[in-house]
Give the backbone structure.
Amino acid sequence: MYYSFFEIFSIGIGPSSSHTVGPMRAAKRFIDNLHTEELFERVTKIDVTIYGSLALTGVGHGTVKAIVYGLMGLEAEKVNPEIPYVNAVKLDKILHLAQEKPIAFDLDENVIFKKDVFLPEHSNGMKFEAYSKEGQLLLSETYFSIGGGTVVRQDAIAKRVDREPLKIPHDFNSFVELQKICEAQKKSIAEIIWENECALRPESEVKEGIFKIREIMQNAIDRGMKATGILNGGLNLPRKANGIYQRLEEKFRNNEYDPLLILDWLSLWGFAVAEENAAGGQIVTAPTMGSAGIMPSVLRYFERFAASKSPYSLEDGILKFLLTASGICSLYRSNASISGAEVGCQGEVGVACSISAAGLCAAMGGSILQVEASAEIAMEHNLGLTCDPVAGLVQIPCIERNAMGAVKAVTSARMGMKSSEHALVPLDTIIKTMMETGRDMNNKYKETALGGLAVSVATC
Ligand code: SF4
């Protein structure tokens, strides 16, 4: 199953694609379906039940806020985080469905948390029920947020996507298939993905859209480097990116030599985006919001420090980077998972690290086998990475983990660039292993905040 670049990289508001963007999209789809079924006018009451991981970490991840946005008909790309929509609902106990129809809505009564119920299909489940004034159940739908902001309705969960396969010239389900296409066509991974994307929308829109994604990523770095203060949520965690930036600038002014300075820049950019995400800023799912700092950091490393040694122009290098990362991410999405609630953090930070390593290797002129090696190395050393966010917030360990992921991605690409033959562990094998490791992982370590750091760190 091919996933488009624009499904993989989407613009949204932090802090979590599966716990924020996904529930928001599900709520909006439910409201749209009420319209389609011509039931909307009869609705006087909505109940939302959230299950499992969504219920356990939903408060820290902003799930309730996202559901309110969705019921109001707002879309992730357009929501204005400055407007206090949810506070108004909290105070007035009135919600304007699709911004058209006011109904009574008490956040404490109409949003029901079932923390100990994990629906069998996926741990990020949510059920929406609409009632008439006579108390008749008009519509009931259950959705799952399966990672990266993607939601599927219960009747489509087995396919993991509720859309038809995309009509593209090059379909592939494994790296081996992708490699064969590249060899037969004498084209790079980036060229194959480009042709697929141009079959889905006009070429000018593809290019403009890719550079828009790059711009949002880079803007998040710039905002994050300037911002100061304490992150919301109750951990009293100060933002660190600005301090790192000030120290780096000082070293530069003083002409201080430090051979490892590049590690600090990578960490800074990873911190900057991850802190923006934690603060609810606008970022790109890459492939999720919790792991959204890694790719912008590695991309900026390419642009600032490595592009001069690339065989491509800067623009072509950026395109190679992002398109290759997208192609590799499509493999993770179709053969494994990018949901921390399903496979732990290896599916978020691990995948972000792997696809960034692949992108960097391609942008530096690496061969298809070197791209495979880079992606494989990066995932191999993230296998088993658990998701155990303290207080259910996307802050500890998430923010530092983005910085570490960026450093690891660059190291993996450099190691991958040195490999000259087929790796002993193929990328397809590591993707399958990641999924199996995720299936074996205890639920305590899958975005439930019931194990690991989440229970070891005192939060008051
Ligand atoms: S630990 Fe990883 S998967 Fe879990 S919330 Fe943080 S970034 Fe996401």
Notes: The chain has a mean pLDDT of 95. The first strand starts at residue 11 and ends at 13. The chain has 19 helices and nine strands. The pocket of iron/sulfur cluster is lined by residues 290-291, 340, 345, 348-349, 387, 389, 394, 397-398, 401, 447 (CB under 6 Å).
